[in-house]
């Protein structure tokens, strides 16, 4: 049987070509097949090489589980045809990208995998507006979590009670939909309602926008301004360092 191809699990960084790694560029340029979704953003998607077969595997419905299986099967079957496959993901492939599950599936099929780390939005997007996720004065720990989970649901995989009592910065990805519930829950469970919050939409892209408030006000402000995903939510004292200026990291 012919040799199997390698699968590259590649992080694109938060949006622009300048924050993509050299290795990511190399493997993209050599790929036979690129499986992508919309998160890497227009600039990066427009730069994908013409010669590669490009497959949009974005999840636009509510059938995430079935579609995730299909994506993994696609990666396996392309690699088994001996083709070199890139699975391109926004930010870093192992932070909420389901990259870990893809790695397991590929290993189970004896397919060789290279992971190409990326600059994660969880840190780079706050940084772009001068918010460091840690700072000796404000936070010596940072918790990064998915806001996909409703804090009022009993079976949540996140320990929301612990979070409300924890010190340090909280960074929430995929949290726009549940922002109101999350902010209320944290205050009801002991966090100071005056804790500053930043919601940064489309970070490091041309149409980046920030909405700033406190745990008490942020849900209202975000609603008024019609905040939409993708956005990074930052909660904690470090948000007081936000000045409105963009600190472009290149
Ligand atoms: N692996 C990615 C995260 C995937 S989860 C990473 O490391 O960045 C998808 C979520 O990431 C989005 O819902 C949003 O919360 C966040 N996100 C990714 N890129 C972003 C960007 N450029 N601006 C704002 N949020 C972003």
From TrEMBL:
Its EC number is 2.1.1.107. GO terms for molecular function: uroporphyrin-III C-methyltransferase activity. PROSITE patterns: SUMT_2. It comes from the Archaea. One of its GO terms (biological process) is methylation. Pfam families: TP_methylase. The keyword Electron transport does not apply. Gene3D superfamilies: Cobalt-precorrin-4 Transmethylase, Domain 1, Methyltransferase, Cobalt-precorrin-4 Transmethylase, Domain 2. Keywords: Methyltransferase, Porphyrin biosynthesis, S-adenosyl-L-methionine, Transferase. The keyword Ligase does not apply. Residues 6-218 form the Tetrapyrrole methylase domain. Belongs to the precorrin methyltransferase family. Homodimer. This is uroporphyrinogen-III C-methyltransferase. The lineage of its organism: Archaea, Methanobacteriati, Methanobacteriota, Stenosarchaea group, Methanomicrobia. The gene is cobA.
């Amino acid at each position: 049987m012919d040799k199997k191809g390698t699968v590259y699990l590649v992080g694109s960084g938060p949006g622009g070509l300048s924050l993509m790694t050299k290795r990511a560029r190399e493997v993209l340029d050599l790929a036979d097949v690129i499986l992508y979704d919309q998160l890497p953003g227009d600039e990066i998607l427009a730069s994908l090489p013409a010669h590669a077969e490009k497959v949009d595997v974005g999840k636009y419905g509510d059938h995430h589980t079935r579609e995730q299986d299909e994506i993994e099967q696609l990666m396996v079957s392309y690699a088994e045809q001996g083709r070199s496959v890139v699975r391109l993901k926004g930010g870093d492939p192992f932070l909420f990208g389901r990259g870990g599950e893809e790695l397991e599936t590929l290993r189970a099929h004896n397919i060789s995998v290279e992971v190409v780390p990326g600059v994660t939005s969880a840190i780079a997007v706050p940084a772009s507006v001068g918010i460091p996720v840690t700072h000796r004065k404000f936070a010596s720990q940072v918790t990064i979590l998915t806001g996909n989970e409703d804090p009022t649901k009993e079976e949540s995989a996140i320990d929301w009670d612990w979070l409300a009592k924890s010190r340090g910065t909280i960074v929430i990805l995929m949290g726009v939909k549940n922002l109101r519930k999350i902010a209320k829950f944290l205050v009801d469970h002991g966090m100071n309602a005056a804790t500053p919050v930043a919601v940064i939409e489309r970070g490091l892209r041309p149409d980046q926008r920030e909405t700033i408030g406190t745990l008490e006000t942020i849900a209202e402000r975000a609603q008024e301004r019609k905040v939409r995903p993708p956005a990074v939510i930052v909660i904690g004292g470090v948000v007081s360092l936000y000045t409105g200026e963009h600190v472009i990291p290149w």
